[in-house]
Design brief:
With about 170 residues, the protein is α+β, with helices and mostly antiparallel strands. About 50% of the residues lie in helices and about 15% in strands. It has seven helices and five strands, in the order ααβββαββαααα. A hairpin with a 4-residue loop joins strand 2 (about 45-55) and strand 3. Helix 3 crosses helix 4 (about 115-125). It is globular. The two termini are about 30 Å apart.
């Protein structure tokens, strides 16, 4: 199983491969570069997205009712599952041989390590450390609201990221 550190490394290598030089990261284009189709779906509100793996086709389905920034994080999160957890789907449909990870709100106080890894991957993919530091260096302000707008993520996600980078 990948570690938190390696999940960040996976994201950084993918950013390099896709030649991402400035925010916002076009996560849907990153998915397409990996041959993954992104679809908007009509899921219940508590389901953010799902990763469907077939023998010849991979689809990330995203809740079309969610805010675009949340959908971007969901795509990045499911990309994390695809790259970090290729052999361990949360659900397996034996009849159609499709593996699936669902991203939903966490119930209780238990955090699944695979969910933590996918979230760390998503944070590094959408808010790469080097690009966040560059943006702060240019503006001299570590304001979560302004940075969230620049990176097209939620203010909450950027606040967590700035705390992780020790700016909060």
């Amino acid at each position: 199983m990948p570690s938190i550190r390696s999940s960040v490394g996976y994201a950084r290598r993918l950013l390099t491969r896709c030649r991402v030089e400035k925010p916002p990261v076009r996560v849907d284009q990153v998915a397409r570069s990996l041959g993954i189709e992104v679809q908007l779906r009509d899921f219940p509100d508590e389901v953010s997205g799902a990763l469907f793996r077939g023998p010849d086709h991979v689809v990330i389905a995203v809740n079309g009712k969610h805010h675009p920034n949340r959908r971007r994080f969901t795509i990045a999160h499911e990309l994390g599952h695809h790259l970090l957890h290729p052999d361990s789907p949360a659900y397996y449909d034996r009849e159609h041989q499709i593996g699936m990870h669902l991203r939903a709100k966490v119930a209780g106080t238990q955090w699944d390590s695979k969910e933590v890894e996918a979230n760390r991957f998503a944070a590094e993919l959408l808010m790469p450390r080097r690009l966040v530091l560059a943006a702060i260096g240019q503006t001299k302000i570590a304001d979560a609201s302004s940075l969230a707008e620049l990176f097209e993520v939620s203010e909450q996600a950027m606040t967590y990221r700035l705390a992780e980078l020790r700016f909060v």
